[in-house]
Amino acid sequence: MGEQGERPRQGEPGRRPAPVPRDGSPRRELAHWLRRSLAEHGEPTLEAMLRGLPDEVRLSRSALAKALRGDTFAYLPLVRAVLRTAGADEDEVAAWTTYWHELDGLEQRRRRNETVTADPPPWAASPSPVTPSPSPSAEVGPEPPPPASEPSRRRVPVALVAGGALVAGVVLALLSVALWSGPIGPSESASATVLAPVTTTVPKTFRLVGSSRDITDGRLLWAATFDPGTGRFFPQDKPCLVRTDGTFDCGQYYLGRQFDPDTDRYRIDLFVADSDASNALLQYQIDKGGPDGPNPGIPTLPAGTTVVGDRWYTRS
């Protein structure tokens, strides 16, 4: 037996993720600073975090490891759940919510092939330099804890906390379904209508917006492309933003797959999803490696979804 306090060896249960190879990308910066935060809270192992996650946040060990290595861009419900599991207070979670939205904006630009460089979070007064390195092939050891001179993440400026709390309130209303445990029944009156693009012939990428009604609390509005050629659905990487006036914005929408013929015709399905369905959709994105990973599609929409609108488009 090892001495008390000995760290698990590679290959043994309880091993911790390998250090994040930073390259300035949003996903790697998110993972790096999230790991720093976890180190300040005792550096829980992957197994400890998985055990502490709410039952409604279903996540595999490999998916969590990928998010903490920066191989995938960690979604907000996962970031919030992991922080709370590690013991972060709500002020810290709110500040992280603000930082996540900043990185998410950069990640969306990166996916459009724009050159972006992610900055450290505002509370990191003395960030370590970014040095690109190869992606690790295995989990080999813990990331060192932050230096003593680095201020604690709990010392968040009051203005940042206030701004983060405001954003957190909006996000909680839109994305807290990932942590929702109550049963949500279907709403027969729910509907969604695409308002733009207006034309039926569209480019590969465009902004999808529209109006909705009776999207009840606890459910999210999603969009997915149905390809009649393959008979499969290709859900977008995150739910649409539904505003208080009923208008929605699904952000930058990609119709079809990269190498599909430009003349193909597709149907965009708008559907509401309960907590289990939303978690299944998020898990699909994580398992396939995020927006840049292979996109095999799914044969059917998950149980717990209700289609509330659709529209056909031809890709030009």
Walk me through this protein's architecture:
The protein is α+β, with helices and mostly antiparallel strands. 30% of the residues lie in helices and 19% in strands. Strands 2-9-8-4-5 form a 5-stranded mixed sheet. A 4-stranded antiparallel sheet has the order 1-3-7-6, with no helix packed on it. β4 (220-227) and β5 form a beta hairpin. α4 (76-86) packs antiparallel against α5 and α5 (90-111) crosses α6. The longest helix is centred in the N-terminal third of the chain and has 22 residues, at 90-111. The chain is globular and about 55 Å long.
Strand-residue proportion: 15-25%
Overall pLDDT metric: 75
- Poorly predicted parts: 1-14, 126-144, 146-187
Secondary-structure element order, N to C: HHHHHHEEEEEEEEHE
Please report the total strand number as a whole number: 9
Strand order of the largest sheet: 2-9-8-4-5
Instruction: Indicate the overall shape.
Output: globular
Biggest sheet record: 5 strands, mixed
Q: What count of helical segments does DSSP give?
A: 7
Q: How does the helix and strand content classify structurally?
A: alpha+beta
Range of helix content: 25-40%
- Computed over alpha carbons, the radius of gyration is 20 Å
